[in-house]
Amino acid sequence: MGGALRDELLGRPGADWDVATDARPDRILELFPGGTYQNRFGTVLTDGVEVTTFRRDHAYGDHRRPDAVTFTDSLDEDLARRDFTINAIAWGRPAGSTDASWVDPTGGLADLGARLVRAVGDPDSRFDEDALRLVRAARIAAQLGFDIEPATRAAMRAHAGDVRYLASERVGQELRKLLTARPPSSGLRILAETDLLAPLFPELAAQRGVPQDKIAGHDLWDHCLATLDAAAHITPGDEGLLLAALLHDTGKPETFANGRFLGHDQAGARIARAFLSRLAYPSRVVDRVAGLVACHMFRYEGAWSDAAVRRFMRRVGVDLVDDLLVLRAADNVGSGLPPEAGALAELRSRIDEVRMHAAPLSLRELAIDGDDLVEALGRPPGPWVGRMLERLLESVVADPSRNRREILLDDARTWRADE
Ligand code: ATP
Ligand code: MG
């Protein structure tokens, strides 16, 4: 029932099945002795399938979770508490009948056919009960490519401010799903149209109306969405890159002065970090995205020496450099340019060349390590070791032929003397 049937009917199978029954939880556990309770509402997990007793919700005191639930024998009552008509379709045996059939008391099958997200019953009360439904409406419409029925949409706008009741990690989970929509901008556009964008993601909303002279008639928000969609086109399913595209210019609103955006890359990296941490993204995603945003303003020229290419790779980080070029390609498209503008293809092949010659770019690849330094210089370990290794690496990035033990230790001794 619910979301899984919706997806099955739309030919997007793969969703988790939710099963509901008039059996009470203790009876379900008798029938499936291996089952375990999953939550305080008596949902039982057995063999990976969630089995829930038909229930009725009671008053939603916190705009999120019902204060209590009672079990019921009626499938119709269970469907009536669900959020959208397309999520309130069941396949089962209506009470008093022996044959299974569609159970669709809210007209979900018709809305599925008309490709509409419509609240069950009175939209105002549904959103008032549970503010998460506001975000779910936008996310589900985007994922399915559906419209939102007008009365439901109007109620979303009226209740937009209620998203302040939501836990931000829960919002983060919805954002994760929303960005899987094709194109990923579609859910964000719905959030903007229903006034949900500013209370949910003020960093993104701040981009609206900021001028850009890239594509005629496009402001910074349009540029952000176009870059996001281009990133999804270039590397579908790469969440980190999508987020980097989404957030790459979030430093612009606060740095805008005299028609310029000085330092917006660093400001954007800080904003991206705070945004993603708040939404409980894993720290490796946060680091990767902030790193990409911080470096996105490079400007390659054919006159760069090989040493300059190596320094660039070292500054960005060998692990991030390929992603950074993808981000730039998306940024190019979002700016109305060909993807490879700025001689990206040339830069890419020069980077490949450096890799082929295995020039060291990280401390790991240096011919000596900290222990070697401590021993050779006869000095106790301390912060000087890290500083010295960094300095040696810089010299090797400039001239890879110096990556030999004797040379590096010699350098270290000389520098030690003039420290
Ligand atoms: P997805 O699985 O893609 O996240 P879904 O709609 O299946 O989307 P689930 O969290 O799996 O969402 O929920 C299963 C079903 O429970 C939904 O289809 C809907 O019928 C009901 N449901 C989920 N969340 C709510 C809610 N906040 N209010 C009312 N009903 C809900
Ligand atoms: Mg589901």
Could you explain how this protein is built, in words?
It is a single chain. With 419 residues, the chain is an alpha/beta fold. It has three domains: 3-114, Beta Polymerase, domain 2; 116-295, cca-adding enzyme, domain 2, CATH 1.10.3090.10; 363-418, Serum Albumin, Chain A, Domain 1 (Orthogonal Bundle). The protein is built from 22 helices and ten strands. The chain has helices spanning 3-9, 25-31, 75-80, 108-114, 123-129, 132-144, 150-158, 168-178, 185-193, 197-200, 202-205, 220-234, 239-247, 252-255, 264-278, 283-295, 306-316, 321-334, 344-356, 370-377, 383-398, 405-417, and strands spanning 18-21, 36-37, 44-46, 49-53, 55-57, 69-71, 90-92, 101-103, 116-117, 147-148. The strands form four sheets. A four-stranded mixed sheet has the order 1-4-3-2, with helices on one face. It has a two-stranded antiparallel ribbon with strand order 5-6. A two-stranded antiparallel sheet has the order 7-8. α20 packs across α22. The chain is elongated, with a radius of gyration of 28 Å. The model has no long low-confidence stretch (mean pLDDT 91). The structure holds adenosine-5'-triphosphate and magnesium ion. The site of magnesium ion has 4 residues, from α1.
Any chance you could write out the topology, listing elements then pairs?
Layout: H1 3-9, E1 18-21, H2 25-31, E2 36-37, E3 44-46, E4 49-53, E5 55-57, E6 69-71, H3 75-80, E7 90-92, E8 101-103, H4 108-114, E9 116-117, H5 123-129, H6 132-144, E10 147-148, H7 150-158, H8 168-178, H9 185-193, H10 197-200, H11 202-205, H12 220-234, H13 239-247, H14 252-255, H15 264-278, H16 283-295, H17 306-316, H18 321-334, H19 344-356, H20 370-377, H21 383-398, H22 405-417
Parallel strand pairs: 1-4, 9-10
Antiparallel strand pairs: 2-3, 3-4, 5-6, 7-8
Helix pairs in contact: 6-8, 6-9, 12-13, 12-18, 13-16, 15-16, 17-19, 20-22
